[in-house]
């Protein structure tokens, strides 16, 4: 059972992101083709095609990244179909770049609904995704599989981060009715969330990676 733990966990995560992946992909596609994208989502700005195209492509690429990153890490894919792992790896790298750069472009041109604090942390999140994706590919090409694995773990945590962000909200609203959260995303809960959806998960991943290295080291 222990052998299959990581595969089961990765499949469960990928399946659970399904609703958000469909939501993100469909809003992105509709925003891209609509003449009044603001009717599709409040993130679009009528009359500003560059902003809208950037954030719409970001949503479509982000959807692929969210579900694709955990599936890409499945041990069976890595071992049995290395060619598929390689090709899909480059595809995910492209998706990570479009997601991160599209989000950063949107922040630069329009800002976020929650103001500078949300913009700051979303920008850090975007830069972290770009940095991790670049390192995953760099160390794969360098044949340094230990570092490739470490950066891939960090990238998966970040790739599902946007889904985690929505899950935190869903749980919080179900439990409290939305205390300390508002439509402008300026409540205390909103302000904590822009950090809490990825930083603590990255720290836990880092601890697990260190523990794994220590365990593998001969006494
Ligand atoms: C990892 C996959 C990602 C997916 C699937 C995704 C998806 C989405 C979706 C669907 C929206 C529209 C808001 C909503 O209806 O909930 C959105 C908004 C946004 N995303 Fe992402 N996103 C991802 C990653 C990122 C990253 C890495 C950044 C950082 C650069 C980012 C920055 C933004 C910004 C700035 C907005 C607009 C926020 C606002 O003002 O409301 N996203 N994203």
Which features would summarize this protein structure in a list?
219 residues, 10 helices, mainly alpha, binds protoporphyrin IX containing FE, single chain
Protein described:
- The chain is mainly alpha-helical.
- It has one domain.
- The chain is 78% helix and 0% strand.
- It has ten helices and no strands.
- Helix 7 packs antiparallel against helix 10.
- The protein is globular and about 60 Å long.
- Bound molecules: protoporphyrin IX containing FE.
- Protoporphyrin IX containing FE binds next to helix 2, helix 3, helix 5 and helix 6.
Quick summary of this structure?
With 219 residues, the chain is an all-alpha fold. It has one domain.
Could you say which structural class the secondary elements and strand pairing correspond to?
mainly alpha
Low-confidence stretches: none
Strand content: under 5%
Termini separation comes to 27 Å
User: Into how many domains do the coordinates divide?
Assistant: 1
Could you give the topology of this structure?
Elements: H1 5-16, H2 18-33, H3 49-72, H4 75-80, H5 82-110, H6 116-141, H7 145-159, H8 161-176, H9 188-196, H10 199-216
Helix pairs in contact: 1-3, 2-3, 3-5, 5-6, 6-7, 7-10
Bound molecules: protoporphyrin IX containing FE.
The site of protoporphyrin IX containing FE has 24 residues, from α2, α3, α5 and α6.
């Amino acid at each position: 059972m222990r052998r299959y733990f990581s595969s089961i966990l990765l499949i469960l995560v990928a399946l659970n992101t399904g609703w958000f992946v469909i939501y993100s992909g469909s809003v992105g596609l509709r925003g891209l083709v609509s003449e009044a994208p603001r009717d599709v989502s409040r993130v679009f700005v009528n009359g500003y095609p560059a902003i809208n195209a950037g954030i719409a492509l970001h949503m479509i690429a982000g959807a692929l990244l969210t579900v694709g990153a955990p599936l890409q890490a499945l041990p069976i894919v890595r071992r049995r179909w290395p060619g598929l792992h390689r090709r899909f790896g480059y595809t995910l790298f492209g998706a990570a770049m479009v997601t991160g750069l599209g989000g950063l472009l949107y922040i630069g041109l329009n800002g976020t609904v929650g103001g500078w604090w949300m913009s700051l942390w979303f920008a850090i999140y975007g830069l972290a995704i770009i940095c991790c994706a670049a390192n995953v590919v760099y160390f794969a090409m360098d044949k340094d599989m230990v570092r490739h694995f470490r950066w891939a773990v960090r990238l998966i945590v970040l790739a599902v981060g946007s889904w985690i962000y929505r899950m935190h909200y869903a749980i919080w609203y179900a439990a409290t009715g939305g205390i300390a959260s508002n439509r402008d995303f300026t409540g205390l809960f909103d302000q904590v969330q822009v950090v809490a959806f990825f930083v603590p998960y990255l720290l836990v991943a880092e601890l697990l990676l260190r523990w794994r290295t220590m365990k593998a080291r001969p006494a």
